[in-house]
């Protein structure tokens, strides 16, 4: 992995271009070569760090996306920013305001429906997302609040009764 003297082995310009792109790989190699003249130990450590980060980023898309966001500059083009947004995972929804299973267990279906009716559509969707109540991927698209409430109540009642046949 390293040559004598602790530096990573030199690559041919063509193999560097294939790995990093024509200018990026050459720029990194040149910068590390310059640093090696002044501080060989630091150059070796930076080369290893770069290789590890690059290798892990290839295997782990989440790490690659996190590094992209962390290292992006304010001057990034809008095309690049749009591409980054499209490739990153969607953010998770916030947790629901309360646990519908606890309300059902402690106070019953009527109180569950009453409390759900007090919530806004997005809060109802938060509950659905948090508790995995949208297996068919339809409920998150619904605009009718009563339909969403019916889905939540149906799933809560079904899950609460699950296993009753064995009791």
Molecular structure report:
- The chain is mostly helical.
- 66% of the residues lie in helices and 0% in strands.
- It contains 9 helices and no strands.
- It has helices at 13-20, 22-38, 40-59, 61-71, 78-87, 100-107, 109-117, 121-130, 145-161.
- Helix 2 (22-38) runs antiparallel to helix 3 (40-59), helix 3 packs across helix 4 (61-71) and helix 6 (100-107) packs across helix 7.
- It is elongated, with a radius of gyration of 27 Å.
- The protein starts with 12 loop residues before the first helix and ends in a 6-residue tail after the last helix.
Give the total of beta strands.
0
The largest β sheet comes out as: none
Helical element count?
9
Question: Shape from CA axes?
Answer: elongated
Radius of gyration: 27 Å
First-residue to last-residue Cα separation: 62 Å
Low-confidence stretches: 11-19, 75-79
The ordered string of helix (H) and strand (E) elements is HHHHHHHHH
Helix proportion range: 55-70%
Q: What structural class do the secondary elements suggest?
A: mainly alpha
Mean pLDDT: 79
How many domains make up the coordinates? 2
Our estimate of the beta-strand percent is under 5%
